[in-house]
Amino acid sequence: MSLFETTSIQCPVCDTITDFQAAGSVNADRRPDLREAILDNTFQNVTCPSCNEAMRLEPVVNYLDVELGLWLAAYPPRQIGDYLKLEDEVQALFDESYGSASSASAQDVGAGLQPRLTFGWPATREKLFLRKEGLDDVVIEMLKLDLLRRLPEAPLRPGVELRVTSVTETALGFVWIETASEEILQAFECNKALLAEIEGNLDAWAEVRGGLTQGLFVDMQKMYLGEGRNAA
User: Which residues does the UniProt record annotate as the domain CpXC (predicted)?
Assistant: First the structure.
């Protein structure tokens, strides 16, 4: 079941307060239209009735997609610094819902789910997009780290992320994006040969993969956000 509750949102331009149905949970198998809304970046969008300013609610939502084998908890990007604490909380929630602390029938469902923690809509949309395209999100994060060595003018700074937005037979489309505003700063394509190179040499990436998969926040940002789980 997808759950919504009425909340109020204030326009940053004219201060008009508007009621809006905020998502608390999404069941994409029952509401595939919500899956598509996340993918096309229209989910939780609202337009001010007074001045037509476009706004989007921050994500505070649990997402279930049995068809694609994905379960994720999405939080506002401003909470990314608390990812270690939230990883533990989200893991406990998954365990209660579909993991070791759930019923046998729920565990049967959970066995086919990939649990993830995300911050912001660009990251949430990317996880869903990668599952839909059959791409391993861990290897994609490795590829991003490799690309940082190849992109001398990469606009890497707090609040700016590198996200996959498209895929063709030969290339992956990437954008550098401001997480909070979702403003695209740069866009480029990467030949899939670089991805294949990593997939064919996973032993060399074993240490990096171990760091990325330690917890439900699978994102290259965790490699430079702080001391990490080993020192926590």
Answer: 9-144
